[in-house]
Specification:
heterodimer; A: four-stranded antiparallel sheet; 8 helices; about 40% helix; elongated; B: alpha+beta; 3 domains; five-stranded antiparallel sheet
């Protein structure tokens, strides 16, 4: 899939591209609004990752223009330092598909892009399975051969996120960022330590149905949901 | 008190003072004038009497039955003329003296004049009854009182009208200033007035408002730029660390270092975001058009914290009376406000502790919400500084915060005009919030 990264900061664009290429996306770059307009006119993209603070124009202007004229199939995700609720609303109202305030986690971006792709292709893919477990996203439930495994809201979110990135090491910080978002408070290590408590509970609840260890602890770093072939 | 009211009061008081002084002085003035007038007429009477004596001789006055005295009263006995022999001549006198009349003593204004005629001294007394003079007094007094009242009232009315007219621009200027809300006042048209002072005042105020708007806009632009400039390098680092972690065969030690760096970066991000949020609230960049039900937002916050509450085995007690609703609020800011307070109540509690959420409306007071937790007491000397930026009471709590959570709480409270207070003792810590903009939807229960 083709991605246009509209970002005036070269280093940031390169880091984004590095991650996306690893995820098998094909990346193209635009540093200014004019360059982006031109590329959007000539090429077809599946995703446009749009920074709002461009040197020659406001990204929102580019977004409105892009939505009006061409590339109607491209999904636009705004990546901006302007992260207030009002900014997000105006971005989404102008036709953006998602809005991530800087700094964002690449994993978070990856899962949002996956979600958009699934929606776009009508693949609601409501269920994900591992071993004998089936996780239902619209019902927010987890079952093992028909029996319900009762999870709290946080535990469900955490398991789902680990499952989406199965085989990958996720740091406590990444998990905490996903669970609590950018909720503003005096956050401290308590939140990331809390991830351990959640994982412990998830293990206990899964263990009641299947004794295999699904979530692996990566010492000092975080957790990894084991790829199915490993378990 | 308004300037106009003060001027009206001053004018009224000065008129009242003037009227009082005049009313007190009037009897004396009138009396003096009336007496002077009476004395004048007595003197002219004396001249006429003297002329008569010169013309007809004294004998025609002093007739046989009373050869040494002649008293003549007029028809109403208001006036008399008394002529008699005198022992020696004396200078003229005018005085108020009692005289016998029908067996009673009655006060008369009497002019006494002695003169020599053919070697014999005579005294002529011409008197006017004081009662008749007093009639004149009364007439004069009421005339003066009417004139005074008329003068005071008409000048007062004229002055009030003029004051009102002249000071109208002041009212308009005050009204305009009252209407200015927040740092983005709308541009105002010039004021219609011919008074140069007011013209200057109005122009100055409009210029200042313009300047405030400009400075505010510059500041807002600066914040937007600064946030972009600061958040972009932070994003680069964060993405780079994440990419590094994805590399295969990374030595464990390197992984650990990256994770530690990520944590530091996360702290920087949190601080940056909170600072930006505080300055955005202070610049009134948040809309305030939500109506927030306090019970509901508290419920949402408690739900958000349910895992941590369960983990610490805390009990949450509710005692919220009525359905307080905050008008003209920002819902997401209020969520952050209560989230920060309650997450502190969880964080600094002991396992198995308590959180109490109470709310009530005392008569004549705004609605009061209290959030109590059974955490360790905060030393009294730390309490006044609890809401200051980067003020950490690291010796109080084992876990350090970033020192901005309660500063943000205070900023949101100020934005919504809440009053905030904290008290702490051996039993625990209570945050009290008065919500002056809150109304009770269904009345107190």
């Amino acid at each position: 899939m083709n991605v246009l990264i509209v970002e005036d900061d070269n280093a940031l664009a390169q880091e984004l591209a590095l991650f996306l290429q690893h995820e098998h996306y094909h990346c193209d770059f635009a540093r200014t609004g004019a360059e982006a307009s031109e590329k959007l006119y000539v090429n077809e993209y599946d995703f446009v990752l749009l920074d709002l603070g461009l040197p020659d124009q406001d990204g929102l202007q580019l977004l409105a223009e892009a939505r009006k004229q061409h590339n109607l199939q491209a999904s636009i995700i705004i990546l901006s330092a302007r992260g207030s609720v009002d900014d997000r609303i105006s971005g989404l109202q102008l036709g953006a598909d998602d809005y991530l305030p800087k700094p964002y986690s690449l994993m978070e971006l990856g899962s949002r892009m996956q979600a958009i792709t699934r929606r776009k292709h009508g693949v609601t893919q409501d269920t994900l399975s591992f071993g004998g477990f089936v996780i239902n996203l619209s019902e927010r439930s987890l079952r093992h051969s028909g029996a319900e495994v009762v999870l709290t809201r946080r535990e469900f979110d955490l398991l789902h996120y680990l499952l989406l990135h199965r085989g990958r090491v996720l740091t406590r910080m990444q998990l905490s960022e996903h669970i609590w978002g950018n909720m503003i408070s005096d956050r401290d290590d308590h939140d990331s330590n809390f991830i351990d408590v959640h994982v412990k509970n998830i293990r206990k609840k899964l263990g009641a149905f299947d004794t295999r260890d699904w979530v692996e602890t990566v010492r000092g770093i975080g957790y990894r949901f084991k790829p199915t072939q490993e378990v | 008190m308004k300037l106009q009211q003060k001027l009206v009061l001053l004018t009224t008081l000065s008129k009242a003072l003037m009227a009082a002084v005049l009313l007190l002085a009037l009897p004396w003035i009138v009396e003096t004038l009336a007496l002077r007038h009476t004395d004048e007429s007595l003197r002219s009477e004396r001249q006429r009497v003297m002329r008569r004596i010169e013309q007809t001789g004294i004998e025609s006055f002093l007739t046989e039955p009373y050869p040494d005295q002649k008293v003549h009263y007029d028809l109403l006995q208001d006036e008399f003329i008394d002529l008699r022999h005198a022992v020696r001549s004396q200078p003229d006198t005018v005085a108020t003296l009692p005289r016998q009349q029908h067996g009673e003593l009655v006060d008369f204004r009497v002019l006494r004049h002695t003169f020599q005629l053919k070697g014999q001294a005579y005294t002529v007394e011409i008197g006017k009854s004081i009662a008749s003079v007093e009639d004149v007094y009364a007439l004069l007094r009421s005339l003066a009182a009417y004139a005074l009242a008329f003068a005071v009232l008409t000048t007062l009315l004229i002055e009030l009208g003029v004051i009102n007219f002249l000071l109208r621009p002041v009212d308009q200027i005050v009204e305009r200033l009252r209407a200015v809300q927040g740092p983005m006042p709308p541009p105002l048209p010039p004021l219609h007035t011919s008074t140069s002072d007011f013209k200057y005042l109005d122009a100055t105020i409009r210029r200042m408002l313009q300047k405030i708007r400009l400075v505010f806009e510059q500041e807002r632009e600066f914040i937007a730029n600064a946030s972009h400039e600061l958040l972009t390098p932070v994003s680069i680092l964060q993405n780079r660390f994440e990419n590094m972690l994805q590399a295969e065969n990374l030595p464990e030690e390197a992984e650990q270092q990256i994770v530690t760096s990520q944590r530091t970066l996360h702290r920087l991000t949190a601080t940056l975001r909170t600072l930006l949020m505080i300055s955005r609230i202070e610049n009134e960049q948040y809309a305030r058009n939500d109506t927030v039900a306090v019970r509901q937002v508290l419920r949402e916050v408690v739900d958000e914290l349910e895992d941590r509450i369960a983990d610490e085995n805390l009990t949450v007690e509710w005692a919220l009376t009525g359905e307080p609703t905050i008008m003209a609020a920002n819902g997401s800011l209020l969520f952050t406000f209560f989230y920060n307070l309650l997450s502190n109540a969880v964080k600094y509690n002991h396992t198995g502790g308590q959180i109490r959420i109470t709310g009530q409306q005392l008569t004549g007071q705004p609605y009061m919400v209290q959030l109590f937790n059974t955490g360790r007491p905060i030393p009294a000397e730390h309490l006044p500084h609890l809401f200051e930026r980067f003020r950490r009471a690291s010796n109080v709590h084992t876990t350090e915060g970033y020192g901005l959570g309660l500063a943000l709480v205070r900023t949101i409270a100020q934005f919504h005009a809440f009053r905030l207070q904290v008290a702490s003792n051996e039993q625990g810590t209570t945050f009290t919030i008065w919500l002056p903009t809150a109304t009770l939807r269904h009345g107190a229960v």
